[in-house]
Design brief:
single chain; 377 residues; alpha/beta; Rossmann fold; Glutathione S-transferase Yfyf (Class Pi), Chain A, domain 2; 2 domains; 6-stranded antiparallel beta sheet
């Protein structure tokens, strides 16, 4: 899988821009606030219809314009595909080969990307909410139904929590109505849980292998799913449904008292163990960063295993956050394996770390100049 061309219109600080890319390594070079991260972000938005930097989509549109458009031409093993993502005051619109997609879940998955940014080093030591978002975005790329069921789950969860709060004013509640909400929540939640357990099983396999190589065989990485339920990887979706129904009923009294839903995938988390020790709590900063790097690289192999081709890798100024040894390990992993886009303020520090001759794009105040040259030239 590769992105051959991207065209931006009214996007951030780009009025109109068309770029063609190398199938291997593309480097965006420039000082801060010049627009290099905007280019990387546009590829991410083209893939997943949302930014990794902002929850406010209107920020993608130039301040004096009504819309922003990203168009990309990608090549996959089954042929070329044209993707279009439009953001306006009316919302988002997506097209595949010129045909508008009625649901975002139908669009996501055509272009698979893995983003590694400085904030992703917080995957290990950050909040459970951050790790749940990580799960949702990555599973959504390889399972077209996941985001649909997750959206339904979140809708029912909101309805249930609103009803729980309503009972505090009414001083009574309709147990039959709550049973209906429980049933709907368990139906959608069981799909979310089943998909997450399957994903984590694959993720741990790849992450442990990569982590072992990075640590020169000294460390073993285990990734597990921490749930409000008693789960096992062997459970079927039907078993998960009955388990969630049972727990929702069991905690109903507590939910009515606390006016919130206490069990379900919206409360779950990931746990990373290195040599049997919780790296989130007890690991050194070096171990935490190695774990985050291992997990990100594992995603690449996992997606290749699931869809039969490698995703595109986006590295947003992440090399500056890694020591020399981990930089070398990262670049060696990438070597000729997948198309990569990298942002940096200087190419000089890449010397001796790259085996691939990159395409270099110099970015200055929204203007881009492309050149093919050695990184020390």
């Amino acid at each position: 899988m590769q992105l051959n061309q991207i065209e931006l219109t009214n996007y951030r600080n780009y009025n109109q821009l068309t770029l063609n890319f190398s199938p291997k390594l593309n480097v965006f070079v420039g000082d801060n606030a010049q627009g290099k991260t905007n280019l990387l972000e546009s590829i991410y938005v083209l893939s997943l219809t949302k930014s990794h930097r902002s929850n406010h989509e209107k920020e993608l549109i130039q301040w004096d314009k009504d819309f922003a458009r990203i168009e990309g031409q990608i090549s996959k093993k089954n042929g070329d595909i044209d993707l279009t993502m439009i953001v306006s005051n009316k919302g988002k619109k997506t097209k595949v080969n010129g045909l508008e997609q009625t649901k975002l879940s139908q669009y996501i998955g055509y272009l698979n990307v893995i983003l590694f940014a400085p904030e992703d080093l917080s995957l290990v030591k950050g909040s459970p909410q951050y790790r749940r978002k990580f799960l949702d975005m990555e599973i959504g790329q390889i399972n077209s139904q996941y985001l649909h069921h997750l959206s339904n789950y979140q809708t029912v969860l909101k309805q249930r929590n609103q009803y729980l709060k309503k009972t505090a004013f009414n001083k009574s509640y309709d147990s039959l109505y709550l049973d209906v909400l429980n049933e709907q929540l368990a139906q959608e939640g069981s799909f979310v849980l089943f998909s997450r357990l399957y994903f984590i099983k694959l993720l741990e396999k790849w992450a442990n292998s990569i982590h072992e190589n990075i640590s020169y065989g000294k460390e073993e990485l285990r990734v597990s799913y921490k749930s409000t339920l008693e789960l096992s990887a062997e459970q079927t979706r039907e078993e998960l449904y009955h388990l969630l129904m049972e727990e929702l009923k069991k905690t109903e009294e507590r939910d009515l008292t606390q006016l919130t839903t206490n069990v379900g995938p919206h409360r779950d988390d990931l746990v990373f163990m290195v040599n049997g020790q919780n790296v989130q709590t007890y690991g050194s900063q070096g171990q935490q960063r190695t774990t985050a790097l291992s997990v990100k690289l594992a995603e690449i192999e996992l997606i290749n295993e699931e869809i039969g081709e490698y995703p595109i890798l986006l590295l947003d100024d992440v090399l500056s956050e890694l020591d020399d040894e981990r930089q070398v390990q990262l670049m060696e992993f990438i070597d000729n394996k997948l198309q990569t886009f990298l942002t940096t303020t200087s190419v000089t520090h890449l010397n001796d770390k790259l085996k691939i001759k990159p395409e270099i794009f110099y970015v200055t105040n929204g203007e881009v100049e492309r050149t093919s040259e050695d990184v020390d030239g």
